[in-house]
TrEMBL record:
PANTHER family: ACYL-COA DEHYDROGENASE, BLR3437 PROTEIN. One of its GO terms (molecular function) is flavin adenine dinucleotide binding. It comes from Methylobacterium oryzihabitans. Residues 124-218 form the Acyl-CoA oxidase/dehydrogenase middle domain. SUPFAM superfamilies: Acyl-CoA dehydrogenase C-terminal domain-like, Acyl-CoA dehydrogenase NM domain-like. Pfam families: Acyl-CoA_dh_1, Acyl-CoA_dh_M, Acyl-CoA_dh_N. Residues 14-119 form the Acyl-CoA dehydrogenase/oxidase N-terminal domain. Belongs to the acyl-CoA dehydrogenase family. The keyword Oxidoreductase applies. Keywords: FAD, Flavoprotein, Oxidoreductase. The keyword S-adenosyl-L-methionine does not apply. Residues 230-379 form the Acyl-CoA dehydrogenase/oxidase C-terminal domain. This is Acyl-CoA dehydrogenase.
């Protein structure tokens, strides 16, 4: 059993503890039956539908438009501990509609969010391009007025999670009100919009639905814009402020699973006539893992609590939470692999699976290097 003492920390309230219990019970009962690594797309669809039915997706796309970031983080942590795709399916419903939740028109929200909450329609966040990943202000995909109130999108997006299976995308485009970051806008684009195609599905070391998208003369109604014209950069950053802390939470879930597996291993495996756990070398490793996990959890729930308590922006706290938790998880999982010896690199073993799962979290939604830039700018300012 994972350490759940953090649930008593003052960052959390009784409703969070109840939610954690429910999510734990649901994940233990349902995730193994819904997950199938040979069918990643189907797994994500089934998991989203199951989470929708159980009511958890209301925390990813809240009906009142107010994120309970502590709940979001708790759910990501718990789902990640059970299965990487369970976290992924949950998180994408939120990331893919975060812009709508925060800045969408009432009509658009009413049209899109109930299906997302029910897990019937799948969402995606389309920001990254082949030539613009970390440097969002350089986005090249264009959105131009095209008469009759429609807007025409042309360009490419890549590394889009849920790409290929999503029912709709929030697409960030250059609308040109001003140069750089001040000339972008966000649009809601249904997956069946004419001119939008999946150019390529992308495979990675921890497979999940991922694609490169092509927009050629792709038309959507002008009222599909989310937020003000020219405010797309700030819309993207506001969404990332929420979800970066939650990426830290997912990393925390992976790390807790690695520590659990390591404790089990340390108790059951004998070396030189004693359990591994009796060796001081092992104890050092376990102590460092547990400390890294608590440090990560403190950052994650500090960021979440700060936002829930009403801070208008948590850019610094979210960047720290993402950076600290993902880097800590990588280290914890690497130690778990080492403690497991050959078993740690056997395909399909828990440490091996976690080792593949964690790597991308240090890259997406702002690589560790970008988080350092963000933190430095905040403290210098
Ligand atoms: N919330 C609201 N507004 C924000 C903001 C935030 N978190 N961060 C920046 N802004 C505002 C700034 O205040 C500035 O506003 P004004 O034009 O009114 O002054 C504007 O947005 C531009 O900000 P800045 O000058 O900092 O833009 P940069 O191009 O220098 O931003 C970074 C650089 C690295 C911070 C940004 O591009 C970034 O976060 N990149 C990583 C993106 C990412 O996560 N990619 C992965 C894809 S998602 S899987």
């Amino acid at each position: 059993m994972p350490d759940t003492s953090f649930l008593d920390w003052p960052f959390l309230e009784p409703r969070h503890r109840r939610l954690a219990e429910e999510a734990e019970a649901w994940a233990a009962a349902h995730v193994p039956a819904l997950a199938d690594h040979h069918d990643v797309d189907g797994t994500c669809r089934r998991l989203a539908a199951g989470m929708g039915e159980a009511g958890f997706l209301a925390h990813a796309a809240p009906p009142d438009g107010r994120f309970d970031l502590r709940a979001l983080c708790l759910l990501r942590e718990i789902f990640a501990r059970h299965h990487g795709l369970a976290d992924f399916a949950f998180a994408m419903q939120g990331l893919g509609t975060g812009a709508l939740t925060l800045f969408g028109s009432p009509t658009l929200k009413e049209r899109v969010l109930p299906g997302v909450r029910a897990g019937r329609s799948l969402a995606a966040f389309a920001l990254t391009e082949p030539e613009a990943g970390s440097d969002v202000a350089q986005l090249a995909l264009t959105a131009r007025p095209d008469g009759d109130g429609t807007v025409r999108l042309d360009g490419e997006k890549t590394w889009i999670s849920n790409g290929g299976i999503a029912d709709h995308y929030v697409v960030f485009a250059r609308t040109g009100e001003a140069p750089g970051a001040r000339g972008l806008s966000a649009y809601y684009v249904p997956a069946d919009a004419p001119g939008l195609t999946v150019a390529e599905r992308l495979d990675t070391i921890a497979p999940h639905p991922l694609a490169r998208l092509r927009f050629e003369n792709c038309r959507v109604p002008g009222e599909n814009r989310i937020g003000e014209a020219g405010a797309g950069f700030k819309v993207a950053m506001a969404v990332l402020d929420v979800f970066r802390a939650s990426v830290g939470a997912a990393a925390l879930g992976f790390a807790r699973r690695a520590l659990d597996a390591s404790l089990e291993r340390a108790r059951s495996r004998h070396l030189f006539g004693a359990p591994l756990a009796a060796m001081q070398l092992t104890q050092t490793s376990l102590a460092e893992m547990a400390t890294a996990i608590d440090t990560a959890a403190l950052h994650v729930y500090r960021a979440a609590w700060t936002r829930d308590a009403g801070a208008p922006r948590i850019t610094r706290e979210a960047a720290m939470a993402k950076m600290v938790a993902t880097e800590a998880a990588q280290e914890v999982i690497d130690r778990a692999v080492q403690l497991h010896g050959g078993e740690g690199v056997r395909s399909g073993s828990i440490p091996e699976t976690l080792y593949r799962e964690i790597r991308a979290l240090r890259i997406y939604e702002g690589a560790t290097e970008v988080q350092k830039l963000v933190i430095a700018r905040q403290i210098i300012a």
